[in-house]
């Protein structure tokens, strides 16, 4: 077994993630073999440049299983069978890491399997939504079980790096508790909030601002897929939902009796949580300031704004374009380092932009 | 009483919202008078160009009360007293509209008061966070009570328009139920999700993606202010929290017994909710597609990207710059009309950008 990724790499399942892995590896010059129960998906992914259909003669160095959560254990097991007696490594890109291991218990060659999970996705699915850039700069969890061969771990780490991602090693149980907290529970709560909007009167929804859009965005994902994901991680998700339920009871109790102290403590806990999320580039969160600029909503105006901001020598950390319910003018929020805001404002104003210091 | 906003307008309370109203009216050429218990805040707001300190001789046409929720009823009442026997109209910019009215019950000149609520804000507070553009294109709820004079309603509507906002008329009780649904409950749920991150291990948080950042962003707001806001709207908020609690129990029950059908139905309700939020410009949500581009993280590169996108004649609907935990390259997501995506991709690729179709 080699720790160097030389290929070929077989991708089993040519949906959003599998096709994106194929595209990213092809971009990196690695030969990719494609397998899917849908020969049409294979043709589509192949046509996009994600690799070529696998033939019986192919001998992959690495098999990447990219199938729906419910099928992971069985397809990983099949991949170990298909490569039995070889040095081929098997990995997956599934959202949950302990459940497939349970299904693989006792498999004689499980030491050739190392779980993986790229933290990237989209509200869209299927090969046509794929992108070679999907993993660029994103965390990619590597979750070796206790029997995994070290050279297999190294090869899967190399896969993450060749796809442009940043490997983060987490033991399977730790991984599952982590994603319950930073992905599965946020998704479920977003769905509960969004669910309350489904039958709301239109004039109530007309007041919607960026806040409710942000809170509910992830709830737009495919219910079947997310149903499989959270079910596969039910234990860790239930532990956290019990905490959420207890806090929700506290909020309801505090509101009912007007206990401002309890309410503020819960809100302050939320503020602390938002600050705990790592900043851009994994470093501490730098103080930023938002600069508002009114921009006509037609092609070229944003380009002119960014050209002018670029001339000012200011790095834009983040951008938000506000949804404007009634007028063909967008409000653009440029997030910049606090120390750069005044300079940027002065510079934009001198070029005629409508802004305010 | 005139329905035409000629000024002067007195702004009582020169925090984020009050100072922004002053700046927006000053931009529109309306004379603004400033009052605050903090003379330093008045000096700051005045120095920013939001108006001049009010003197005893001034006779405002309209008084805008922009004080914290707990003080609204008392300060609105004071403003009616101070203008007793005149035609001056009093409004406010508070987040809740029925509670102040309860405190004003029986006031002999309550017909000169019409509540308002601009749907704009910031995680920051104070006059230095203010902006003349804060209300541009945002909904501004106008909530006349049954005794409000029609010409007072017209004048407050004119205020919203002169500040650049889009007036949306909603009866006070309707308004409070609407903001409970699209603002207060989403805020509380975001705080509950964010609260679970406060003590999470660092290597768990290292997996954080855009999803959890979006779900929790609003939870970064001032706990004291939001404690006042949700307390003032406790009735409507509690009604919805009871619904959320019931659905949370369903999720927990379904996960515990592996009932996939119930889980998927709840997730599907969330999808329907995200689709119910009005799209940009208040119209139906148009199908969009996200285009990924890798961009070096230094000044000028975003400008070059937007200039190239502008040359392609494609209108950018939204932008996201992904936080990149390990590398000095950002992944920029450009959201464009589905019908424009292929043209934009081809155009950017021909200019050397790393992207994918």
UniProtKB/TrEMBL annotation, chains A, B:
Q: In which pathway does it act?
A: Amino-acid biosynthesis; L-tyrosine biosynthesis; (4-hydroxyphenyl)pyruvate from prephenate (NAD(+) route): step 1/1
Q: What is its EC number?
A: 1.3.1.12
Looking at the record, the residues that make up the ACT domain are 290-357
Whose protein is this, by species? Nocardioides fonticola
Every copy of the Prephenate/arogenate dehydrogenase domain together lies at 7-285
Which PANTHER family did the record assign?
PREPHENATE DEHYDROGENASE (PTHR21363), PREPHENATE DEHYDROGENASE [NADP(+)] (PTHR21363:SF0)
Family affiliation: Belongs to the prephenate/arogenate dehydrogenase family.
Q: What Pfam families does its record include? A: PDH_C, PDH_N
Q: Which UniProt keywords apply?
A: Amino-acid biosynthesis, Aromatic amino acid biosynthesis, NAD, Oxidoreductase, Tyrosine biosynthesis
Protein's name in the database = Prephenate dehydrogenase
Q: What EC class is this?
A: oxidoreductase
**What SUPFAM superfamilies does the database record attribute to this sequence?**
6-phosphogluconate dehydrogenase C-terminal domain-like (SSF48179), ACT-like (SSF55021), NAD(P)-binding Rossmann-fold domains (SSF51735)
* Keyword Nucleotide-binding listed: no
Q: Reaction catalysed by this chain?
A: prephenate + NAD(+) = 3-(4-hydroxyphenyl)pyruvate + CO2 + NADH
């Amino acid at each position: 077994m080699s720790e160097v990724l030389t290929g070929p790499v077989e991708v089993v399942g040519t949906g959003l993630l599998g096709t994106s892995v194929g595209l990213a590896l092809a971009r990196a010059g690695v030969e990719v073999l494609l397998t899917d129960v849908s020969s049409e998906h294979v043709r589509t992914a192949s046509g996009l440049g994600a690799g070529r259909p696998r033939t019986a003669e192919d001998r992959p160095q690495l098999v990447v299983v990219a199938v729906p959560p419910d099928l992971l254990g069985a397809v990983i097991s099949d991949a170990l069978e298909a490569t039995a007696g070889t040095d081929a490594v098997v990995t997956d890109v599934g959202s949950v890491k302990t459940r497939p291991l349970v299904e693989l218990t006792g498999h004689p060659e499980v030491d050739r399997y190392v779980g993986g999970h790229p933290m990237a996705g989209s509200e869209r699915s299927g090969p046509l939504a794929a992108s070679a850039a999907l993993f660029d700069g994103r965390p990619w969890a590597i979750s070796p079980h206790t029997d995994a061969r070290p050279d297999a771990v190294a090869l899967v780490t190399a896969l993450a790096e060749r796809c442009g991602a940043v490997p983060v090693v987490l033991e399977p149980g730790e991984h599952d508790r982590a994603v319950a907290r930073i992905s599965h529970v946020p998704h479920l709560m977003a769905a509960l909030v969004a669910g309350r909007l489904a039958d709301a009167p239109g004039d109530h929804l007309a007041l919607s601002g960026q806040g409710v859009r942000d809170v509910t965005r992830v709830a737009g994902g495919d219910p079947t897929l997310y149903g499989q994901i959270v079910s596969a991680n039910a234990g860790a998700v239930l532990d956290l939902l019990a905490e959420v339920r207890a806090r929700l009871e506290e909020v309801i109790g505090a509101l009912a009796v007007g206990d401002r102290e309890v309410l503020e403590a819960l809100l302050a806990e939320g503020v602390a949580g938002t600050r705990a999320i790592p900043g851009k580039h994994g470093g501490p969160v730098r103080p930023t300031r938002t600069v508002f600029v009114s921009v006509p909503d037609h092609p070229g105006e944003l380009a002119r704004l960014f050209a002018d901001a670029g001339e000012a020598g200011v790095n834009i950390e983040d951008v938000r374009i506000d949804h404007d319910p009634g007028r063909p003018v967008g409000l653009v929020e440029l997030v910049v380092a606090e120390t750069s805001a005044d300079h940027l404002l002065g510079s934009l104003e001198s070029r005629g932009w409508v802004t305010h210091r």
